[in-house]
Amino acid sequence: MSARHTGPVAATTPTFIGMPKFPALAREALGNTQQRRNLAFATQTIRGKRAAVVGEVGDWEALRLNGAAVKDEVLAHLDDYLIQLEDKLTAAGTTVHWARDAAEANRIVVELVRGKGVDEVVKVKSMATQEIELNEALEEAGIAAWETDLAELIVQLGNDRPSHILVPAIHRGRAEIRDIFRTRMAAAGRPAPETMTDEPAQLAEAARLHLREKFLRAKVGISGANFAIADTGTLVVLESEGNGRMCLTLPETLISVVGIEKVLPTWEDLGTFLQLLPRSSTGERMNPYTSIWTGPADGDGPQETHVVLVDNGRTHVLADPVGRQALRCIRCSACLNVCPVYERAGGHAYGSVYPGPIGAVLTPQLRGIDNPIDASLPYASSLCGACFEVCPVRIDIPRLLVNLRTQVVDAHRGRPSAEGLAMKSAAWMFAEPGRWASMQKGITASSKLLRGKRTLQHLPWPGSVWTDARNAPVPPRETFRQWWQRTHGESR
Amino acid sequence: MTTAREEVLARIRAAGAARPVEVPPAPEPSPQPAPETVDLFAENVADYRAVVERLAESAVPQRISSALGQYGVTSVVVPDGLPSGWLTDAALRVLADERLTAYDLDAIDAVVTQAAVGIAETGTIVLDHTAGQGRRALSLVPDVHLCVIRADQVVGDVPAAVRQLRPAVETGRPLTWISGPSATSDIELNRVEGVHGPRHLHVLIVGDEA
Amino acid sequence: MTRVALFATCFNDAMWPGTPIATVTLLERLGVEVDFPAAQTCCGQMFTNTGYADEAIPRVRSFVEVFGGYDAVVAPSGSCTGSVREQYADLARRSGDAGLSRAVAEVAPKVYELSEYLVDVLGVTDVGASFPHRVTYHPTCHSLRMLHVGDRPLRLLREVRGIDLVELPAATECCGFGGTFAMKNADVSVAMGSDKVRHIRDTGAEIVVAGDNSCLAHIGGLLGRQRAGVRTMHLAEVLASTAEASA
Question: Which residues pair with B202 in a beta bridge?
């Protein structure tokens, strides 16, 4: 370790702290056949859509290279860009706040909302506010936070946790959603229509009616931002349903919670990112609505705008020269959609608001690797590389996973473990070709003992982990090295 | 006591990330639009299940009237600066935007606006909310959005639109990018048009009857 | 005279000798004189990918010493080749030994996965093989997405006489092996493998072929447990084969 001072990690919140490791959570998820069907169908559909619209772009790779480098440039000079952003936001009439961690960000938002004398806010879907658990903080302060994205509404009404960055209720089927709406909507406002079926159009209509009264009376809106432009002081939010426009336009006060890595240097950089994000995310040429604002506009929308810039572990990520590229992430979720592990384990198994491959590299860097769930995440991958292939900002997720695995092992060195012992013995054996050749004599001897068996069905632990579901190969009677010696004689 | 601002900036500087980064150029924006650019725009807007029509300037008032009739519209709000004479249908209740509340807008069926830029490659309409386009709530709360865009406002791709919009952003104008009607895919990734924004987007492209 | 070394890989050497034997047979048939430096052991991938970088670094050092003098190194494994080409640089950097980094930069680009060596260096796709069986091909992740071997293995297989090559549905999806992933996340690994095996069985192939015996051990283990009657074979073994159709 270098002597570099790293920013502190974010706290693993009570929601996730007692969680078992990924393998146990995944095993449970694998048993949920309805969820597996929902996930397999949804991820395969969106993979196809993404591939089609990415294929339309003449030079996708050039866009990716540009996007990755623009983000690297931001990370390399993040202090300068944040100061520039702050200046421009302030000049445009926005009040800028800084927060070291989730608790501080939540305190700022709660005080702002209290200052307006209201007991409710409308919210646009935002990963940053989920990460800091703002809704819980608002609730504690007696303020109702209404999630307005359809999937977030499903999750909130169902007292559930999101399982996907873009489609948080991806694990729910239409019948489950109908039941949630029927039983829970009334307690939160306008009840679901008596005649509502489980047709997606009818469910969407129920959400429209339920939320409209909340939009119309809202005094305070809360958002995140997909991008914050340093040279103009502009914030950008992409969405589909129009709930974002409602929250960003109708209230008198708008509070935007923005991770410090969301900065883009110039307005023109949007030209790249507004191509990369929608095509990677929803698999559309463009998402239905993008709202762009530069402070309050005269007679149009909120006349009071705030931005809360949040660290919450991001500077800790920044201090890792390999791992910092995770901060390029634009939360598109393409990596989730192609990940064979995510498709089967589902989002909840990742024990954080960031599931899938990006979560497996981001969460342990934001929160550290002290908790069992966080330390197990870097291993929640077969390193197949499908995530890196689709990432619009070229985050080399497999490389980052391996980097994090090394950190997990290094942190546990000196503590005895079966795995550590096995690795040490293997390292000792491979260190001398003579030892390896002797080992092979043992292998062929065991083969002779097995006398003609062609496959092994039951091995003792830890081999049983393999043979519970898979046959194991029987060692050969002659290894390659022995064959070479016999047929090609002494080599150099 | 150090402020959060000072501390976050100090953490960033301590992280040792500063280094020169060579940023390869983004692919060049497409050159100025050709006739086929407008064709592509029309095709891509329609692909979002918006209704697209192309017509001559002189036909606009008549077509607005028939289009609004299609949706059973009885009331329509018009932004300041929309060409007078576009809404001539006596059967329509036409309201100017005179301090209408969100509740008022919720009771109005439709809005007619102009646009700032169209993007062919993505079928996107950009409003910069200047004259003829109205403040943002106008094109959001009513259920039908009829948008009139001139063919010469259509650019080829996203980077070209972004470049053109810098002056609007620098003067503090908000922008709304619209690609089709409001939609969601949150239920089993099944696309449903029409959630909170206008459920009907009707686009009239003026000035180049193809 | 170019000097070509075989990097058998430890797993093949000890458990699947048929693959390096086939590689030698094939290369010799194509007129390549192959050397097997006996000092080779393991590339260290198992250590690297499990997080044991300190244990992997001596493997890097040994690899560049053993293979440094050759013009080309051929390995019948996508993932071991990938480990050398794509991961050694990070390990050398961690070691802090600039000399090791230089040695890696020199040696790593000369290490070829078998299909790369045949197609790119020898310039052949017809290797004179004959294999009258119904075969499907699974592209392993590291050969596909780390090495970008593309359709090279398929071009080689298409030229094999008598072969009935059938396309594998969802071919590019991971089989779920993933090294120690197969043990640490055995449930997900098996779930992924079960889908792979279902696709393989759907093709009606007698044999599933791939460029990595590690993935094939996982796939074959599942096929065996299901008594599917589908065999696994390494690409090298098919390409080395000169079996004629039985009458």
Answer: B51, B146
Chain C residues touching A473 at Cβ < 8 A: 15-16, 217, 220-221
Chain B 157-196, CB below 8 Å of chain A: which residues? 157-163, 166, 169-170, 172-190, 192, 194-196
Closest CA to B202 of B2, B46, B87, B26: B46
Q: Which residue of A has its CA nearest to B171?
A: A294
Closest CA to A390 of A49, A144, A132: A49
| B and A touching (3 or more beta-carbon pairs closer than 8 Å) | yes
Element (H, E) at A145: strand A144-147
**pLDDT score for A305:** 98
B71 falls within a domain: yes
Kindly indicate whether the ipTM for this predicted assembly is greater than 0.95, answering yes or no.
Answer: yes
Going by their DSSP bridges, the two strands A94-99 and A304-310 should be labelled as parallel
Which residues, including other chains, have CB under 8 Å from residue A299's CB and lie 6 or more apart? B135
Any idea how long chain C is?
247
Question: Model confidence over A45-76: pLDDT tens digits?
Answer: 999 999 999 999 989 999 999 999 999 999 99
Whether the per-residue pLDDT at B119 is higher than 60: the answer is yes
Residue B22 placed within a domain: no
Domains of chain A: 1-64+332-415 (no CATH), 65-310 (3.40.50.10420), 418-488 (no CATH)
Q: Report pLDDT for A474.
A: 92
- For residue B125, give the CATH number of its domain: 3.40.50.10420
| Overall domain count for chain B | 1
* Beta bridge partners of residue C73, listed in sequence order: C5, C111
Using a pLDDT cut of 90, give the percent of chain B over it: 80
| CB–CB contact A468 C186 (8 Å) | yes
Q: What's the pLDDT at B194?
A: 82
Q: Max CA-CA distance within chain B?
A: 69
- pTM, 2 dp: 0.96
Topology (CATH level 3) of domain C134-240: Rossmann fold (3.40.50)
The answer to whether the CB atoms of C49 and A383 lie below 8 A apart is: yes
Note whether residue B87 is domain-resident: yes
Residue B35 lies in a domain: yes
Average of per-residue pLDDT across B205-209: 82
